[in-house]
Amino acid sequence: MWFKRKRDQILSVLLVLPSALAILVFVYAFIALTTYVSFSNWNKLVPDYTFVGTANYLRLFQNPRFLITLRNLGVFTGLFVGGSLTLGFLLAVLLDRRIKAEGLFRTIYLYPLALSFIVTGVVWRWLLNPGSPQMGSTGINLLLEMMGLGFLKTGWYTDPRIGIIAVAVAAIWQMSGYVMAMYLAGLRGIPEELREAARVDGASELQIYRFVVLPLLRPITFGALIVLGHISLKIYDLVVAMTGPGPGYSCDVPAYFMWELTFRANRFAQGAGIAIILLAIVSILIVPYLRYSLRREVEA
Amino acid sequence: MKLHPARLLLYLVLIAFALYYLMPVYVLVVTSLKSFAEVNLYRMWNPPRTFSLESFRRALFGGMGYQGLAPNILNSVIMVLPATLISAALGSLNGYIFARWQFRGANTLFTLALFGMFIPYQSILIPLVQTLKSIGLYGTIPGLILTHVIYGIPITTLIFRNYYATVPKELVEAARIDGAGLLGVYRRIMLPLSLPGFAVVLIWQFTSIWNDFLFAVTIAQNPAVQPVTVALNNLAGSFIVEWNVQMAGALLAALPTLLVYIFLGRYFMRGLLAGSLKG
Amino acid sequence: MRKVGWLLAVFVAVGLLGWAQAGAPLVLDKPSSLANISLAVFGDSAYAPAIMRATNSKALVDHTFARISRLDEVLPAGAKLWIPDAAWAKAFLAVWDPNRVEDLFGGGKLVVGSWWTAGGEAEGLEALFALYRENFPDVVIVNATVAGGAGFVFKAVLKPRLIAGDPPDTFQLHAGLEVEGYSPEVYLRPLDDLYAIFGWDKVFPPDLLDLMRYEGHYWGVPVNIHRSNVLWYNKEIFAKYNLKPPANWDEFFQICEILKGKGIVPITLANAGGWEAPHLFETILASTLTPEEYRGLWTGATPWTHPGVTRALEILKKILDYANPDYSAHTWDTVLEYIAAGRGAMNVMGDWAMGWFMAKGVDVGWAPVPGTKGVFVALSDTFAFPKRAPNPINVIGWLEVCGSKEGQIAFNMRKGSIPARTDITAEERAQFNPYLQSCMEDWARDAIVPSVMHGAAAPESWVVDFKDAINLFLVTKDVAGTQAALVAAAKAALGK
Fold this sequence. Notes:
heterotrimer; B: mainly alpha; 12 helices; C: alpha/beta; 23 helices; 15% strand; elongated
């Protein structure tokens, strides 16, 4: 019996080995290389690996555009993740109430997931184009006007105070359906008895959601956070297709800036620095959460 | 039939949201049905005065000085199908092992794999190109397939791992008492139960790989092998952009994934219901 | 021998006609080695490989031609050869690496990289391809374009390929310092020898040649010239309010004041691509500085603290007061809708805007940007020759087409730019539209300064810094801070 166990142990390692090796090379070796490049002097097309310490990082943090992109990333992540989670949860709760044509509503909320960010960006660029006094309003502003809500018009992504928020609106539109699907599945998986028991104990619906449902949905929230967080940190296609860097760089994000630095300005070393900074942000935020959740699962 | 005011309100809210989600598609469809002369940013909500499928034809087969999407759709199909199937298979195997066979350091390995998913792909383009070139796969569709398979491993493994974790322990125990080893349990217990998990993974991967632009434009530089996302980007130029053709092209490029979600969406939901993405 | 002598006369005649046919056939009347044929036709036996290659190329499409398998082969009487024209043969010898025996056999591909994917530019490219195919029908042309304004995406695809040693055969490169970003000494082939062989150093204007030279070498062959400092205006609005195109910024702002508040945007501005507003700024700089001072900005001769720069920033700031507020939603072409609809009066953009106006059927007026009469802010598209091009011999023909008069006329008529060559006759000129004709006249007599936003004046890293500074200025309107940023950018680029 132990022989079989031993064999299975070895087999399990062997079977994940190809994937592990592939990840080792295509992810971690590349990350290691990128890290090294971020400390190097590679500023022309010809690779130059001389070590220069933290000079590139210093230059990045002195660049006003970079600081703006970091701020934008924070705002975008907060809005996108928070907004998608909230909207997705809300829609799931609404749909969980034995709705006629639930399938139809579900499909409508879910289909944006099928589109690429480029398509989404092109369409929302039109939708959130504010128009102008001379040419007339367009997009959402025009709709608002037509509905008599013209006072709600804003400059959307042409207003540097809004900027990245407009991009978040498009991103939430695209991904909230996915969150809804996840939460709906989760809600359906909560045994009715649990809710009944709480009701019998005199809890209100709101309290049931707070103390029974939400805690049970925590693993889903975790899964959604991983997926949304990873999309958010790498957001690039959407910005390119929808707004570009925007007025005063109000729509700019680190991945976009990195692209320009690396492939237009040839500052490969600084571009690598941005990548490592993004990874560092991930480590600080996500990794502890990952480990904590994994450990909790094992205990469960 | 209680048409309680609360119920009515519920339906109204749902419909309002449905309109919010459908609004962009309306613009896409309406614009692509217009002729170039009629397309106007400031009249985007107006339905087309004359229905014209001309923009679809031009988007598919090309027009003045640009090529159509038709040949590239085939390239996308050739790339996406193997990549999706292989990464799903790998994810299933890996997910199973991580869910059920805790070897030493498995958790750490899993965390590392997930963490690696967060690196922006722009920053590893150069080593990626050089590596692919050194194994002779640069500029080919198999090279694209390999890239997508490898970078898809973390997410497919995650989905399957969570899914297999919900399979009751008793089933596995029973099989093991019967003498099944690692592969036996997989074959006899896990695989038959995997359909919902595969539904989620296949749909998810099909969509992300079909819609990928970055790897497509970097690796497949020969126009003959470019996927449809690159061709769609080329429908624009640094000059006059025919918006109706662009929108028609976007619709056409999105059609396969849209159809997948519309018709197979219920399997996606069922897969989720069966616990694949529960965490 | 006599036959060969007669053929030589034909070559000379053909050569005088311009680049019409790339050579002529020759049927041997007695067995001969390639070396002897070369000696007879060119006076030098070294051109044997060129003849071999040219014949083999022809043989791939026309089986009456001989197929030569070895350089030292003695060909039988009656064998039909193709003698290439002298220039191409010389170029062949200059480019050919004797270790690459495969180059002697013709065929292969020509992978052309550019970002010209739609409209007139794509048609222009096709015209060049058509010319190439007439003379090199054995070559398969691969049109490797990637869309994205100013090569935004294309460059990101090209650079990893250059680094990995797998570039296209030729690619689009802006004339000027943009080439610095490609580390040409490592990745590109200098074209000085081809310039001498094909006579380009005599037929392109000296100002352009200066622009093309980097580190003492030429790296690309220019196909066109575009002008960046053009003011486009709506003729009807100007007629209605009795306005004439402003000659200086005071007149310009007077016009803006008159038009303001009449439901018309006096000066339309775009910036969705991030480069349109810096483009405007570069033309303002060309007006507040003399041509020498402007050029000096990029060589370090003029400090960026110059009051001309300050004044330029202040002019830009004032323009923002009259510009449309939705500029960041517009790319250079969508904002022209204002003018087309009669809701916008003026716009500053390079002369590719003419193509847009013509396609929309708008009769637009043009003038030099206020204060830049007599100054031509120039940019040019060229094609470069990577060192590790997979089909180097095919590139020779391509560069020849690009630099030829026929090629340049065919291309530019469709693209809406002007040929770089100076030997265009008056009747050839008449084929172009009125704007382009006036542009050609200006090109011949104005002072030529390089555009910065389009890769001529500065290396790309500097262009990005310049662009970033102006983009921030649009929102902060901080003249002093932006000027400091521009000074810092120059310092970073020039290393002082």
